[in-house]
Design goal:
DNA polymerase, domain 1; 6 strands; two-stranded parallel ribbon; two-stranded antiparallel sheet; about 55% helix; mainly alpha
Length: about 280
């Protein structure tokens, strides 16, 4: 069916991470009575939405949550994309692969107690406690099915959640997620909300100096400026750009707006249009 809808580029669709899913979706669209052009557009938009989420194939056997579908199309609010979202949800429901939406209110009493524990016992700031709760809500939504009790939490569910989080964030950020998860799972065990300890989680290792420096040292900046060949107009242009960045802290977006009219030759001043703050400097 992909070959029929995309005669010239069907191989690219079939070879994509979710090629089998796109093929089944195309078959379902045609069998459901969608016109060829409409089916073509739905398959193309679904491929685009899924690739924005992840380069890995979806695990269809375990089902796909309505929340994941909504998240995939969250930044694609145009009417055609939302039509594709609804068609995809109907396709999943027809195949018994659309999971019920997780109800975060199921664990509201537990989360309220945990939030009070974070504020009153651990002494966390309100904003920090809110970050903890947001992480835990995300964890519960991914680790448990719609009707599963908290006692169904397992080490495998924790591992899968952290693996998914690790694909979308750096190790430095993942350390915070692990710390929040440890604290919550320890609290649940102490409250006899889970039958076994699940808070023994290895955090990703971060090494001092592993990241690039946030700024060049000043001697290195001066060496960079001296290395520019100023015997040509292009050399002087490059030198002026880097000089303004190094000495005056101008942003690239501010430098590209400069013209000869930005210079007040008599007052010996430079007028800079700041795009970020929408003001002049």
């Amino acid at each position: 069916m992909l070959k029929r809808l995309f005669p010239k580029v069907h191989a690219r669709y079939a070879a994509s991470a979710n090629g089998a899913l796109l093929g089944d979706f195309a078959v379902w669209l045609v069998s459901a009575g969608y016109a060829r052009d409409a089916a073509h557009g739905h398959v193309r938009r679904l491929k685009q939405a899924l690739e924005r989420m992840s380069s890995a194939p979806l695990a269809r056997d375990a089902g796909i949550s309505a929340g994941f579908v909504s998240q995939a199309f969250a930044s694609l609010q145009a009417a055609p994309f939302q039509g594709t979202r609804r068609a995809f949800e109907r396709f999943l429901a027809a195949h018994g692969q659309l999971l019920k939406e997780f109800d975060p209110n199921r664990f509201a009493p537990l989360l309220d107690r945990y939030r009070r524990y974070l504020l009153e016992v651990r002494g966390l700031a309100v904003s920090t406690a809110d970050q903890h709760i947001a992480t835990i809500k995300r964890f519960l939504a991914q680790a448990l099915s719609a009707d599963a009790p908290l006692q169904d939490l397992s080490a495998l569910a924790v591992e899968r959640f952290l693996a998914a989080e690790g694909r979308r964030m750096r190790r430095q950020s993942l350390q915070h997620v692990v710390a929040r998860l440890r604290a919550f799972l320890r609290f649940c065990f102490e409250q006899v909300a889970v039958p076994e300890r699940l808070d023994t989680i290895d955090a990703p290792r971060v090494y001092r100096g592993e990241l690039p420096p946030r700024a060049l040292t000043w001697p290195l900046v001066q060496r960079l400026l001296r290395s520019i060949d100023r015997r040509s107009r292009l050399g002087w242009r490059d030198y002026a750009i880097l000089h303004l960045m190094a000495h005056y802290g101008l942003r690239p977006s501010e430098i590209v707006t400069l013209t000869l009219g930005s210079i007040d030759w008599q007052a010996k001043t430079l007028r800079v249009k700041q795009c970020k703050t929408r003001s002049d400097l």
